[in-house]
Automatic annotation (TrEMBL):
Its EC number is 2.7.13.3. It catalyses: ATP + protein L-histidine = ADP + protein N-phospho-L-histidine. This is histidine kinase. InterPro entries: CheY-like_superfamily (IPR011006), HATPase_C_sf (IPR036890), HATPase_dom (IPR003594), His_kinase_dom (IPR005467), HisK_dim/P_dom (IPR003661), HisK_dim/P_sf (IPR036097), Homeodomain-like_sf (IPR009057), HTH_AraC (IPR018060). It comes from Aequorivita sublithincola (strain DSM 14238 / LMG 21431 / ACAM 643 / 9-3). Keywords: DNA-binding, Kinase, Membrane, Phosphoprotein, Transcription, Transcription regulation, Transferase, Transmembrane, Transmembrane helix.
Amino acid sequence: MLLLGISATSQSYDRGLKLLAKADNFNKEKVWDSAYTSAKESLTIFKNLQNDSLVAKAALELFYTTNNINYGEQSQYFDLALQNALKVQKPTLLAAVYYMKGRTHFENRDMGEAQPYFLKVDSLANQYDFLNETIVKAVMARSEISRITFTHDGVEIGHDLQLQALELAKKINSEELINDLYLRLSDMNGLIENYPEAKRYVDLAFNYYIKEDNVERMARVYLTYMNYYYAVDDYDNAGKKLEEGIEYLSNKNNPEQLASMLTAYGTYFRKRRNDCSKALIQFEKAKTIYDEIDLKLSDRYMYLMEGMALCFAETNNFEKAYIFYQKAYETKRDLVKKENNDLTRELETKYQSEKKEQQIALLASQKLLIEQQNKNDRLIFLGSILLFGIVSLFIFFQYRTRQKTNGKLKELDKAKSTFFANISHEFRTPLSLINGPIEDQLSSKKLSPNERKNLNMALRSAQRLEDLVDQLLALSKLESKNLNLQVQNTNLPQFLVAQAEAFSFSCSEKNISYTIHIEKDEVVDWFDRDVLEKIFYNLIGNAIKYTPEQGTITIEGSRSNNQYEITIENSGNFIKAEEREKIFERFYKSTTLSPGAGIGLALTKELTELHHGTILVNSEKGGLTTFTVQIPINKNAFESNEIFCAAISKTEEFSPTQEIVNLEKSIVIPEDAPILLIVDDNEDIRDYVSSIFETIYIVLSAKDGKEGFEKALEHIPDIVISDVMMPVEDGFELTKHLKENQLTSHIPVVLLTAKNQVTAKLEGMGIGADAYVTKPFNPQLLRANVDNLIENRRKLQQRFAQEVILAPKDIAVSSEDEKFLERLQKVLDEYLTNPDFSAETFAAEMAVSRMQLHRKLKALTGQTTTEFIRSQRLRLASKLLKVDKISISEVGYAVGFNDPSYFTKCFKQEFGSSPSEYLSK
């Protein structure tokens, strides 16, 4: 009997292992239902065998499976896996549990929740000195999290982590991971424009995957080759690689990848060769495959339809263009509908799971209540009823009295809030009439020192009154419940440092020692920027106001669990204990802090509480006063209506050149995104400003004016944001150099500074700055300034594009732009009609690099160098056509076209009609 029992246990053990292996394979193949069934059965077997280690592995497999099919059981399986992994004390198993949890958050784009789990994996590896595939994958995931920030530092960290992962993968001799990293490193080096390294890594990956005959990876390798050759402007080899990819995939049983490669090849002909006829051949082949495999509900099919629509539009087949645009739109609509259905199903599953748990808890409570009621004595029950009646009557009469009182109090509060709101609005007009004349007087050079001193004092008082008006308005909004939280996800330490740095100038004016100790990290936090900015502004402004000259102010910030603590400490007056209890009350004026009006700290406290936080004050007899603010930074701490919902813009057209793979997901970067240069000596300010624009701009940065000017000359950005006070060369000098150089004179400049004086603003505007934003700045206001300047530049491009030759005429341009255009005019006059006149010749004659000429012309006209030359030739041809006795062919040759048919084709593309049709108009 004993032998039979051992044999049965052994059989169960073997069956459980086979089922677990099956579940793992099904998960890799994304056959979720089969994976769930196998993993569930293996879990039952290992529970019966009381094998905690294998129970943890089976639960982990079920956690991954249910996360993909939304059975609503994810949480219980993760808890089971973690509990058993801790029970058996196996670091490798615990690392696998943490990695799977982090990966799940990562795939759901919840980077802030994913990062701590990957760091736990790293800590376990260091603590117990072990290395396996899980450790390597965790490092790879951390590199992807750093990379998708698209900041300079984030990309650098991501690159270093990929190299670290490659070294670890080589130590465990994992060919699969090594070559996966080769492919990722090729993408990364392409991103940082290290193209030789990008080519080297993709070559290494190619050798491995062609040998392994890994069809999915080979498809990606060919697209990576295409990206590389696009980046180095070698379109011939890009086309060859796409042809090789199509030939390879044609012999494999993977129609989806073949259709994707054919779409990329069609896009190559349309965008890189301007040959829609060849593009449509490839698109039709791709469409046939998608129709055969019935894969029409996908992003790739939508991009194919858009590509075909664009080709038909370019070949003037507008009927078919409309049909395929309609198909693209319907596919996009169906994708959104499917996404919404999936989300609804997920929410319903979660609701049913929670409802089931509540029912179980309710039944248990009811059972306990019945048992207790049976034990109660009848007399006690009757006495309770009598007591309840008496208490009810008492509560009823008390409730009616309080209801009347509350009604009166609400009427008084409403009247008070309305009064404050009205009086605040009425103050603004006279304040504007006070500030304007004072600022006009201060601009005069004839003022005596005493007069200037008195006027500055009056201006500061008016500005102080304006701040008080704003605070009164904020208080009235809080009282009327019109001020609601709008929390967003971003890095809080970075935001705080940027805000704190804005007060450096004010502190230096009073000779105050100003220190900032804020722990930096890359965690994603949830908070309301506007509310926190007001809290921070009031507290630091308060500290500066009450700190004497030669005093000290220290700002500290640190996180604790899901809370963030901010402390602002300053030397100065001692606040008594009885005053500290009332200091946050409205209109309370401390005898110690006599200059205040009693509004700022009251507003700060109410804003902190609105943010679900707390604020405390402590003061020592030595004169050291500390304000401590604690706020929640986890998304779960806020209601759904307190979370700001911003639409996520999608690119109009899929472009394989922009594909960046992040653990089986991708982010598309606009190919023609404008370039933004940020110049500031403070790294945190650079990172914060970069975070505001990084999703829609290619962001460059420099640490001072000298470096900024060098980068501006190299890259010719679309706009520059610069601090004023910097070492080596300040913002005013940078602006002056930019505006005096012909290559950069067109670039709009936004100056950021802590200087709030009118004279400083006038100085910036006087040397050509286009906008002047005072720190601490509102990110929405800064973004609006930048967007307006870019839009104005686009309108100027449209005006220039209408000119036959770019003479300034009545268009408003700077003197340096005029000089550049004059040089441009001379080169065009001499070479435009020469058939051999190319972009290289153009750049050489203008004495600039090809890239500099490309960026300058793009900024002025919206056209590349080649497009500009062709456009100018065609506009010249349109004038020559009106001259009698000159044939169309002669006009084509005269303006630099060697092929009359090509001239006719280009002319029709430019003017919408052929030369003969143009003449007949």
